[in-house]
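writing this on my phone so excuse typos. first protein, seq and then structure
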Amino acid sequence: MTLFHDSEDVVAWRFYRCGVTGLNADLVLEGGGVKGIALVGAISMLAERGYQFQKVAGTSAGAIVGALVAAGLPAAELEETMRSLDYESFRDESPLDRLGPLGKATSLLLESGIYEGEYLRAWLGDTLAAHGVRTFADLLLEDPGSDLPAERAYRLVIMASDLSHRRLRRLPWDYPIFGMPCSDVPVVDAVRASMSIPFFYEPVKLRDETTGEDTWLVDGGMLSNFPVDVFDRTDGVPPRWPTFGIKLSARANALAQQEPPVRGAVSMTRAMVSTMTGFFDHLHLDEPSTLARTIFVDTLGVRSTDFSLDHDTQQALFASGQDAARTFLDGDDSQPGWDFARYVATYRSPDTAAAGLADAP
């Protein structure tokens, strides 16, 4: 017997499996490498308070977590999945890499990155498949009330940086540029592109149908690590539910570059990449409308590529995410609790939009 007759029923069933009811929200998840477990902590608190997630956008680690959320993993299973992840395996070396520093240098010259990224592809592909998600066709969104055009009606959007054309790519929205139907592309392919930290992982190459040349895609964080406005309506209608951003930095450090000083070629390269990373995000991150809907998670000084993350540190990051989301929702001495009606009236109503106070489209 067929239980569900269309994709809307399937989406409703996935939400039912998550064990949440009542409150809708979209999510935008910042990238942060191994710090992604902190995103899961914040998401678990939102789910505990009854939020169900309609659309998700993410970069790098945010793309990994976002894909799992979009696939319908319940909060408890999402936590278990990320806790059981073997972070060391993300440094998957080719035979050439295993030859030591010379091999890694050669790999960097020949392949433009040291690590393969195949562990991520295999692990995430299997995890998504277990939940019935393989291609973006499995994440089609049935939402007549949305202002998204039909070709962008997906539950997941992933950010990647197009080095060949010097621009941000939003996947699957931009796949037709490369002659690829959005719905046919495996979700894990987009995630793999988004987590390609320059020099660390080999970039993903797509054939540009307009020029016949390869397009190089790397970590979306080079251009937009926190695309909090990706789901904002552009038709002048107030939002039906909030978009919550989850950012992996304490509020006070949101705009700070926490990098060591430049002392030579290696530190200079690191500083250049850090300066480029999230440049466009910094242009609007201090806007009151962005701050009002963003959960800032203190990641306790953990670096994105600390792949030797131990259990206690994972637990501390998860708890920090939970605490940040709880404070965001309930408020404390330094900030009021979340109030969607107040947010809309202040930033997203027709009157405030006409006055130029709402987020730019």
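second protein below, same order as before
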Amino acid sequence: MDEKILNQLSIELGTRLRQKKLSITCAESCTGGWIAKVITDIAGSSAYFNRGFVTYSNEAKHEMLGVSQVSLAQFGAVSEQVVREMAVGALKAATADYAVSVSGIAGPDGGSAEKPVGTVCFGFAIRDGDNIHTQSYYQLFTGDRNSVRLQSVIFSLKTLLEKIIKN
């Protein structure tokens, strides 16, 4: 059932992007490339997707996406500040119209009282001419590692669709 949902969301996302002649990129940490995989599962996705970034470590977030080391130290990798920076970095590097970024604690270890297992932050960047608009979200998902990651991919695709439909 989950594969069917992911496939439906990916097809709808691709259809919207094609209709509006828009492109997308992603910067992923805890999802490890799952969002890019689902997007590129759709034949013809090269019309709107040309690259994505898997930046699992803080070093990768900084080097590949330009995330500030100050932000990483002050807020941590799993923070709305960092995912906004990840999304902007991906958007610029891919010269895309839309970007989604994800960083979270999928478990089973790594959680804390402030950021328990299941904490996931999402960043979205949208190009509007010379301007870039960002938005971030915090979610607390339940379940095992795979479930947290799956819910993160679904949330990302659904939120992208909402943003593309609005614009």
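The longest strand covers residues 119-128. thats all i got for now
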